[in-house]
Input
Amino acid sequence: MKIHAFASLAPKEPLQPFTYEVETLGSFEVLIKVSHCGLCHSDIHLIDDNWKRSKYPLVPGHEIVGTITKKGSAVDHLKIGQRVGVSWIHSACMECATCLEGETNICQQKKTTCNEHFGGFADHMVADGRFSFPIPETLDSAHAAPLLCAGSTVYAPLRNHHIQAPHSVAVIGIGGLGHLALQFAAAFGCAVTAISHSAEKETEAKSFGAHRFLTLEKPPAPNQFDFIISTVHADLDWNLILSLLKPKGTLCFVGRPKNVAPIDVSSLVSFQKNITGSATANRALMHEMLAFAARHKIKPKIEIFPLAHVNQAIEKVKANKVRYRVVLEIAN
Amino acid sequence: MKIHAFASLAPKEPLQPFTYEVETLGSFEVLIKVSHCGLCHSDIHLIDDNWKRSKYPLVPGHEIVGTITKKGSAVDHLKIGQRVGVSWIHSACMECATCLEGETNICQQKKTTCNEHFGGFADHMVADGRFSFPIPETLDSAHAAPLLCAGSTVYAPLRNHHIQAPHSVAVIGIGGLGHLALQFAAAFGCAVTAISHSAEKETEAKSFGAHRFLTLEKPPAPNQFDFIISTVHADLDWNLILSLLKPKGTLCFVGRPKNVAPIDVSSLVSFQKNITGSATANRALMHEMLAFAARHKIKPKIEIFPLAHVNQAIEKVKANKVRYRVVLEIAN
Output
């Protein structure tokens, strides 16, 4: 069948209508009729080739919700007509030590949904059924879409680092990822602090679950957080931020700063502090996150654009004017 | 009583004979007749004021073994005549959240044995009984001394990061700390790799328990270690070293590089890698480490100097000619 998509044909150019043919499905593949797809900053990094690894033509989109219209011979656990979501990971090798432990999102051979593969800015897409996650009934498709990448990326570290209700958690950057991180951390029962350079986000940050709001202009008191999630791409004063951690505390990057982070190792040594990073979630946590979001009524605040207006949506994200996530709606 | 010590009176000067008076003991204090004291690189950093926080006159020495000759009214768990060891931590506040969790070595109010206090390059010293650890009978005093700082510093991270026998552990820098790290990691049953810039250390590194020996001149294969302990003070290519970790692997600094470490956060994000640090051990792990060393016959390779020759010993350490730890013997 012919798939109608929007593609980037060269770095930094507007997306163009683009069609491609799908002949047959592999044994593990499913064909998804896309209804919604989130627009993530990573899509824009790929479109603009900021990471110097983009492959053109490039169909962006990795926060995909749709229904299965066809499936490969080995896909037993999903049904035709079932509503599923697809995230950043298209597939993994399934046989390395990391995959065998279930940690498919950090497989060294993993393929991504919209670089090694055509993504979700399209009326249909082919996904790996093993990486297609049923969406709980109470989550509507438009709000479920951003959970698949932004949501899973901020949820997984809370679980992997064993964050519990008594912990004090700070979220740096209240955007697409950050506004979901506040909601998840609040639902975990934590003491939640939002840290932003935009003072005008205070009221809304508190509506997402932050108990406190800080800016970095006036350096906050040291030694107060167990866990800090940084969602920003800016180069902050990371040693100042490490000073905000309690002994044994952890700074977790889910956003990638533009430049290398100059870390003063002394504070790590003297107080057993930790620096880590995370992106999306393994398959078990993806299922768990969706169920948790449904149970706690966690949802992104979104602005919906028709797919045909994708270039306008990209400009609005680049101008930092979206509150807080764009979701593209695909008319079928 | 009058205590006869060696002290540093100004940065980078040779130590001088130095006496001071002890009138009475505080309730938690013990007077220790010192028999042996290790010479650690941290002593030299303090003597030379490399950390810009040395307080003169400064009596170095924080790997102390001796016997208790007097004790304060609140010291019930130790006996006069008992052999004990003292490490880097003189005392902690005992009331902050960190202390209440038992993590006294990362208390923000902790005092150090030989900067906020007179250390072990002396015939006697005053210690806090709560930070004086009985030495297991089968450990001789000269070999027990370096375990107290060097040993505890490489032991604690293995425990705090839940290192188990199937893990692959690398030790960077085969010196005072590194040669003990190899022994502990081997006793944990791990696959142990020594990484050194001195190719001539290969045979000895293997005698300490390393199964493999690598230099960094030829970059080792990526993705092979679960845990890397760096004991060095040099500025290495930390991003190359992070590439040697498997997904979810951890780089633990126990040595402090001279300069800030420029970290490419991307590899942390993409593969959930971790950077951490550690120094000495909490009191529970200090007891455990001593018992473990006794049970596994782990001991440092030492060169003994009489205390009167301390300046020669310091020169030999600075010239990187000691294999692998100096212990000062105090004639009483």
